[in-house]
Amino acid sequence: MERDSSPSDQFHRYKNLIQNGDNPDITKERQGASFNLYNMQCFVYENDHKLQRRQEILEFVESHREFDDPVHPHFLNRDEQIDRATRKCLAMVDNLDAIDVTDYFDEAPLYQLLTIGRELHCLSLHYGMFLPTIQVHTEKSLILGPFQMAASKAILGTFAQTELGHGSNLSKLETTATYDATTKEFVIHTPTMSAGKWWPGGLGKSANYAAVMAQLYTSGESKGPHLFMVQLRDNAHAPLPGVTVGDIGPKLGNNANDNGFLIFDHYRIPRRNMFMKYSKVEADGTYIPPPHAKLGFGAMVLVRLLMIRDQTCQLGAAAVIAIRYSAVRHSAVRQGEINEGEGEVQILDYRTQQYRLLPQLARSFPSSQRMRSRNSTSKYVTKQINNNANMELLPELHALSSGLKAVITWEVAQGIEQLRLSCGGHGYSRASAFPDMYAYAVGGCTYEGENIVMLLQVARFLMMIAKEVRSGNPKLAEIAEYIAKPDAVTARISSWKTCSDEDIIHDFEAVTRKLIFATFDRLTTLERTMKKKEAWNACSIDLCKAARMHVKTYLVKNFLARVRTCEDPASRTVMHTLAKLYAFDLISGGGGHFMKGGFLSEKQFNEVQLGIYEMLAAIRPDSVALADSWAISDLELRSVLGRRDGNVYPALLEWAQQSPLNQN
Ligand SMILES: Cc1cc2nc3c(=O)[nH]c(=O)nc-3n(C[C@H](O)[C@H](O)[C@H](O)COP(=O)(O)OP(=O)(O)OC[C@H]3O[C@@H](n4cnc5c(N)ncnc54)[C@H](O)[C@@H]3O)c2cc1C
């Protein structure tokens, strides 16, 4: 499709949001915005091209009948949900020409949301983990075959790591891969009940291959967990002899995905099926270790960054729903109308409602935007690692991706629930989309690294830095430079209108630094009387707190920096207030850390609180337009409460009428 970004086209797209027949409340909100929506959308999506592509992909999906839903997915049972998602998934991958498949951060996730919705499906793991595993872990000379087979769907794979008895503790996985030099095969085996693989997506019914993590034994010695390419099902899709496989049953969400279990009984695979890019087993059983222990982390970093971006967009969508609904919903309970005689107010006018909505909206912006630049860093690092060239950036990026993953998935899940509650009873209906959003998002707190375990990894990085700083010989990467700055005794924060970005950053850095060193000192004191691991465990709550603050400081700094790049003054003003609201809300929530030792005075804390109330009032007139700046179509949103036109009540009735209970 030809692109046209002339001013008239831009205006047309802006006007499209306001149409005849819309709920008058939502139209009034849009007309009252203090900024030009198109300019703001360009800022949010970084350029007009991305906006244009969103529109083109939407039009493509809407014009293809195979993406239609004859029955609303909410009214399907699990079998039907799996059938629907599989049908759509195949249609989606048959039409991949519609998107730039290398744009994992924007086009690919948008396309999936539009075609299938918020569901992991039978190919999620194939594309999300199996293909990247082949790319990262297969020797260059051998990659073409498996990659082409996987890319063309001649084989469908999953990633099988977690077992019934072990998830986070990789070193204790029990599945074994024992090399038999006489036949030049590995024998994959499940020696105990707890060694059964449990959870891999797409395993229950769909995948015929898996990348299996198993303890390698060769020449009678254990070499730790390694990855193996294992065929599970034959050409007729029946499990091969020695393989027992099935679905693990319904879960809190993602029920269109057949997460499965897998048990091996002395199942043999050829030697070449070990992923041998980094470590190797020679034909005679000789083991060759990887040149660097952290090789292979690049794929994990990229997958986490993708996940963070996806999750943040979920929070953005939830905020869009709750804000639009709050603009059309009216209420006045007991205390009566705010202005006598003017009727019930839009619930968006209640300060308590603004307090529920706007900090969540603010939260949805910084992480989604930073992910794009982190994507390029991650690609750079992966390239360096793959060329065995430069490992220096890896600990920083690994710690950052682990920390962002833990903080953001938690905030997204909590935020969605808060936004659901803000919509009263209708938020509880699946028509709102909140229940499905929450179920989808909260899974992210566990998979790809359980959140607490992730925070403790960040803490390990921070403790290493603290030790280096104390020893006077720090080698600090960009993200950790502030840890070596001199201590600050008092906070600089003041009224939201007068305090500068530098003041805010100064205070966040100072508080985080203090927290890191206080934890480091406690840890080293405990280590004098305890074993290292015991001391670590005793300190672990503080370690997690320090890790969280480190990530939040990073997010605040980046949000403020990103706002400075906004070229449109009106958009920049609103975004700047939103960024300050984000920072002030974090200070208010973490008041204990900020007030410790009198760093933040009571007067300053009161200014922070008052600032939040004033910023809520300042942002209120722009809230619907800010929600619109996410440029999310109704098809992508899939929510009766968040529809563009605001006509919620007739749509709710229409939705309910599709219930099978109403068919006879
Ligand atoms: C929706 C979903 C999809 C999934 N998909 C896949 C998949 O495709 N493939 C796959 O292999 N797996 C998959 N998993 C499994 C997932 O990766 C694991 O559940 C996850 O790694 C956590 O492991 P666990 O369940 O064994 O929990 P555990 O590790 O047993 O954790 C349980 C609790 O113990 C705590 N804990 C554990 N270790 C420590 C520690 N060292 N210090 C402090 N606290 C600790 C944790 O914080 C947590 O509170 C999926 C899980 C879900 C929910």
Automatic annotation (TrEMBL):
Domain Acyl-CoA oxidase/dehydrogenase middle: 159-265
Record flagged with keyword Oxidoreductase: yes
Cofactor: FAD
GO process terms (BP): fatty acid beta-oxidation using acyl-CoA oxidase; lipid homeostasis
Gene Ontology molecular function: any one: FAD binding
Keyword annotations from UniProtKB, A to Z: ATP-binding, FAD, Fatty acid metabolism, Flavoprotein, Lipid metabolism, Nucleotide-binding, Oxidoreductase, Peroxisome
Compartment(s) of residence: Peroxisome
Acyl-CoA oxidase C-terminal domain ranges (all copies): 502-663
Annotated FAD binding sites: 162, 201
Top-level division of the source organism's lineage: Eukaryota
Family annotation (InterPro entries): ACOX_C_alpha1, Acyl-CoA_ox_N, Acyl-CoA_Oxase/DH_mid-dom, Acyl-CoA_Oxase/DH_mid-dom_sf, Acyl-CoA_oxidase, Acyl-CoA_oxidase_C, AcylCo_DH-like_C, AcylCoA_DH/ox_N_sf
Pathway: Lipid metabolism; peroxisomal fatty acid beta-oxidation
Residues of the Acyl-coenzyme A oxidase N-terminal domain: 39-137
Chief subcellular location: other
PANTHER family: ACYL-COENZYME A OXIDASE, ELECTRON TRANSPORT OXIDOREDUCTASE
Stated family: Belongs to the acyl-CoA oxidase family.
The protein's name in its UniProt record: Acyl-coenzyme A oxidase
Organism expressing this protein natively: Pristionchus fissidentatus
